Amino acid sequence: MRLGEILNLKRSDIDLKEKIINVRAQLTNEGADRPLKTDSSYRKIYVAREILQDILCNTHGIYLFTPNSFPDRQISRRTADKYIHCFFKTVETPYGFTFHSLRHYHATQLLCRGISLKEVSKRLGHASVNITADIYTHWLEEMDKKAAEVLGKELLV
């Protein structure tokens, strides 16, 4: 998910029974509950029940990420950026690594594990599979090389 989408998530956006997160709005510089980037950004993301339970157990307000003194408001983008920056310093991420890099990492891992480009595109909320393909073409080339090796080995008798 995009950071603005995550910061605007409410407890009511999580459906534990169906194991989904409903992405319905985002936090922007203009405020909370703002429309998403595109129509396809409005989506359901399936998540393991254990992860959703853990998220809900650690949430104490309307929003998933709230300031301690204001449980009915979400943290600001500025505060989130500060926490993310501190976290990335702690885990020693590569230079230039950003929160959005996690989104790319997630998509790349899905593609490398054989999840279809269409499904990854849908999960990311891209308006078109072409957008996803354009961004991740270098990974698709790696997968094609791997496919050629696998196929080549199987065809050798």
Question: What is the gist of this entry?
Answer:
The protein is mainly alpha-helical and 157 residues long. 49% of the residues lie in helices and 11% in strands. Strand 1 and strand 2 form a beta hairpin.
Which tags fit this structure?
6 helices, 157 residues, single chain, two-stranded antiparallel sheet, mainly alpha, three-stranded antiparallel sheet
Walk me through the structure:
The chain has 157 residues and is mostly helical. 49% of the residues lie in helices and 11% in strands. It contains six helices and five strands. It has helices at residues 3-7, 49-57, 77-90, 99-112, 117-124, 129-155, and strands at residues 14-15, 20-23, 26-28, 31-34, 43-46. Strands 1-2-5 form a three-stranded antiparallel β-sheet, covered by helices on one side. A hairpin with a 4-residue loop joins strand 1 and strand 2. Helix 4 packs antiparallel against helix 5 (117-124) and helix 5 (117-124) packs antiparallel against helix 6 (129-155). The mean pLDDT is 90.
